[in-house]
Structures are given as structure tokens and as C-alpha cells.
Amino acid sequence: MKLLHLDSSALGEASVSRKLTAALAAAWLKATPGLSVTYRDLAEAPPDHLTGELIQVVKFRKLDGLNERQKQELALTDALVEEFLAADLVIIGAPMYNFTVPTQLKSWIDRIAQAGKTFRYTEKGPVGLAGGKKVVIASSRGSVFSTSEVMRALDHQETYLRTVLGFFGITDITVIRAEGVGLGPESRDQALANALEQISLLLPAAA
Q1: Whole-model pTM?
Q2: How far apart are CA 93 and CA 138, in angstroms?
Q3: How many domains does the chain have?
Q4: Which of 156, 144, 138, 135 is nearest to 190 (CA)?
Q5: Which domain holds residue 171?
Q6: Looking at residue 189, which CATH number applies to its domain?
């Protein structure tokens, strides 16, 4: 079994989402003998955003006369796609920044959204090609967005991730959520404790 573990928070050791992804990965390692883990820190080493130059290469596959940088970016893109497709389980650390995901995580998604690899278009519409895997999203939020229609309407973080993963054909998605972490130390500690409890219930064999 292969696990792909992604972090995207820029906060380092102060990050709640990183604490949650670490706990998730540790629990799965304990519960799954022989688990193979690939780790990417998207905040520490983010894929470059798709400039006009890069999008021609990594999305539209115009491959004639590539310079060295373009070759490296193409190789990185293909590696990101292949490790995503090879994973049976993907853990995504996804804090909410300005109502959505960090730009580094969006950049990774832009790389793996590849027609013919993670999805394809048909006469009946798009079809996801990356199904059959489980994704667990470690979601952290400064405020509380899940308890009212007004606040849920501002959520372009979890809703976006569910949409794009669904577009890739992934239906087995679990969200481990810590929200209200910016409302003071007590709220942060309680949100983290609640999320860690969710993890223990998700993987009781590792408790």
C-alpha cells in the first residue's frame, strides 16, 4: 500500500494542519504494516505556478525545442502525476487561507490536473481517471465555517478540494477538520483535540 503525504501550510511547527497530517500518517503507519510513504512539503518546495511559458509545456504538451528549465518542469509535473496516481491513500494538509487553499497546494493541483492522466473528456462530459484511492483532508480554519449557511457560503477550501478530487474520479474523501483555531488559545487547543479524536475514530486499530 502506498501513501502520499502532502503538507502546504507556511506556518511550520506552529501549523495545525501539519500536526493533523503527521498524526494521520503515524496512525496509518501503525495500522498498516509495509506501508510505503512519499512525503512532499509543498510550502517548502512548491511547484512553480503555471506561467504562459510553462502552461504550453506541462499542460498543452508542446515539446519541441525545450530548454533545460522547461525539461525540468515537465519532468517534475510527470513525477507529481505518477506519484499521485500510484498512491492508494493521499493525506492532504490544507489550511484555509483567505477562504481557500494555499497557493502552493493550488499549484500542485494545477500540475496533476492532466487530461488523459487524471481525467479525460468524452462526448458525455468529463470522466475522472484517478478513482479507487482514499483521500483524507486535514483541514484547519481560523474561524468556524461549518455551522451556518452564511459561513458555509464563504468556504472555497473544502468545497474546492471535494470538487477537484471528484473531477479526478475520487469519491472516498474524508475531512478531518479543526476550525476556530484563530479564535484564541483555548479555541485552538479544543479544535486540535477534537480533530485528533476524529483521527482516533477513523483508525481505531492504531489507537
Answers
A1: 0.95
A2: 5
A3: 1
A4: 144
A5: 2-206
A6: 3.40.50.360
Is it the case that residue 207 has pLDDT exceeding 60? Answer: no
Q: Counting every residue, how long is the chain?
A: 207
For 147, other C-beta atoms within 10 Å of its C-beta total 10
Give the pLDDT confidence of 82-94 residue by residue, as tens digits: 999 999 999 999 9
Phi, psi of 100 (to 5 degrees): -140, -165
